[in-house]
User: Fold this.
Amino acid sequence: MRKRIAIAGATGAVGRLVRQMLEQREFPYETITFLASKRSAGKIIQFKGEDHTIKLLEPEAFNEIDLCIGSTPDEVAAEFVPWAVERETVVVDESGFHRMLDHVPLVVPEVNPEAIANHKGIIASPNCSTTQMVVAMKPIYDVSKIKRVVVSTYQATSGAGVAGQEDLVGGTRNALENKIWDYQAFAHPIAFNVIPQIGSSKHEGYTSEEMKMVWETQKIFGDESIQVCPTCVRVPVSNCHSESILVETERPISAEEARQLFEASPGITVVDDLAAGVYPMPHTSDDQDDVFIGRIRKDISCENGLTFWCVSDNLRKGAATNAVQIAELLVSGRYASCGTSS
Amino acid sequence: MRKRIAIAGATGAVGRLVRQMLEQREFPYETITFLASKRSAGKIIQFKGEDHTIKLLEPEAFNEIDLCIGSTPDEVAAEFVPWAVERETVVVDESGFHRMLDHVPLVVPEVNPEAIANHKGIIASPNCSTTQMVVAMKPIYDVSKIKRVVVSTYQATSGAGVAGQEDLVGGTRNALENKIWDYQAFAHPIAFNVIPQIGSSKHEGYTSEEMKMVWETQKIFGDESIQVCPTCVRVPVSNCHSESILVETERPISAEEARQLFEASPGITVVDDLAAGVYPMPHTSDDQDDVFIGRIRKDISCENGLTFWCVSDNLRKGAATNAVQIAELLVSGRYASCGTSS
Assistant:
C-alpha cells in the first residue's frame, strides 16, 4: 500500500492543526501534498522543517494521492470529494456533507473503528459536539446499553471558525468600552452573552447542530434505539466545548463504576474531585487530544441515570485529531487498507 | 395595619435594586428605614428624591418596624432576623439561611402565594436559579404533575456579588492582554472559561447551589415527588441566568400547548421563533422582571418530556423583585397581614 497523502483545506484553522498532528504523531507517508483554494494556492508553508508550496484544490490534484484528509466547509467537500474518489483516493472528510450517507462510515476510533472496513472511498469524521460525547458514552455503553441521553452544550467560538474567534475577541474588547462590534459569525453578540442556537432551524424545534448530535450518535453506535435530547448553546469561550451529559442506562451504574470505566478508557482523562474544586474546564483542556470527564455522579432524578461534565478541544479531538486517528487506522491496515476499498 | 418598612443590607447590589423596585412599583409605606453594616451606616442615600441617612443594622433598629426586606449574606441574616422577629417585625429574607426551615414559607408569588399565610415572622425568597425555574414550571405543573426536571444552568457572575462582576471585567481585560488577574470571587479564571461548580460540595457529588434547586423546588411546590437533576455552571456573562430545562410530566404536553400555557402566565414572556433567530438571551433579558422562555419543543428522547430555554435577571426576579413581590402580597393582606402573624 502506497502512502501518498494530501491535506485539502490545509490553510484553515483545522487544516493547520491537521498538519501539526501529522508532524507530532509522526504519521507515515511517502509524499505529502497541501491543497487549498485559489486564495492560498502558491503560498509556501513549512512542514517538518521543509518548505512546501500549496497546490490548487482541483480534480487533477488527486491524480497521485492515495489518502486525503479534508478539512473544508461542507460546500467545498461536496465538490472536491468526488474528484478524489474518482481517482481512487480515500478521503477522510471532516465536513458534515457526507456523514449521514449510508455508504459512508462515520468513525470515532475509540468507538467504532471497525466501521472503516466498509468504506467506499469516503470516511466521515463526526461533528465536534458529537465526537466528545460518544467517546464519553462508549465505556458506559459497553457494559449497559444507553437508552437515552440528555445533553446541554457550552460551545466555544472556535467552532464557528476564525471569524468566530475574531468576533469573540473584537466583540469583547468593544463591549468593555461600550462600543458596538459588527459580528460576522454570529447573529447576536457573543461577548458576555450566551446564544441558544447553533446552526439553522432543522427538525421539530431543534437546530441542525442538535440534530447532528442525535443522528450521528445513533449512526456511530449503529443503534437507533439511543434517544438523544440535545440543547446546543454558544458561550463566550474561545476554544473547547463543554457538555453537561445525562445518560440513562439499561441497568443502574454507580458513579464509582462509571469512574472506573472512564479511567480505563483510551482517549479519556478523568478530572474529578469536586471538594477540591477539580473538574475539566475549557481553560485547562485546550491543546490536548483527550476527552476530559468530571462531576461524575448518579442522576438523583432517575434510578438508571448517570450524569457528568465533559470537556474537549473541539478543534483537536473534535476535528483534526479524530481525522488523523482515522487516517492512522486506515494506513495501519487493521480494518481496511488505503486503496483497497473498491 | 401599619406599614413602617425597612431594608436590611440596603447598600449591597441587591439592596440597591430593592430600593429601585420599591420606588418604581410605588410600594405603599408610612416610614422607610435603610439599614446596613458599620461600613455604610451614617452615609446618605436618595430615595424618591429625598435624602435618607443609613442606620446601623442592630437589634434596636427594629423597634418600630413592621416589615423588613433583608438583602444580606446568610451569616448576616442569621444574626439580624431574630432581632427583628423578637420585635414583631415580619422579615422577607433573601438569604439562604432560613429557606429550608419548616416554619418558614419559601415563596414565589407566581407559584405559591398562599404559603405566606402560615408565616411565623419570616418568609424566605428562594435562590435565584430556583426562582426562574419554578416560575417556568408552574403553568405546566398546573395541568399535569411534573415528575422530573433535568436542568443545566448558565449562571452570570452577578450571582457572585460585586466581586464576581469585578472578576469578570478585570479578568477579561487582563486575559485580552495575556496578563494574570487575581480572582477574588472565583476559584478559577472566569474570563473566556466556564466553571462547573457553584457553591460547595454538598450531597452525593452535587454542589450546594444544585441541591438548592432540588430541595427548594420541592418545598415551593409542596411536592417531594418532583425529582430534579441539576448541573450548575458559571459562565462569563455579567448578568442574567440562563437554564436549559427538561421536564417530564404525568401526561404528554405538546410544544404548542406549553407555549399557550406559558403565554397565559403572569411573570412569563415567551420569546420563541427559532427560524427567525429569536429566543431569550442574557443580553436581552437584563433589567427586566419577567422570566423569558423560548426554544420550546418536545423532548425527542421521551414521550412525556418537554424542553425549553429560560432566562431571567437573577438580581431582579432572582432576588430583589421576588422579595418586593412577597412584601406586596403581605401588605395587600390577601393571604396574611403584616404584624398579624403571631
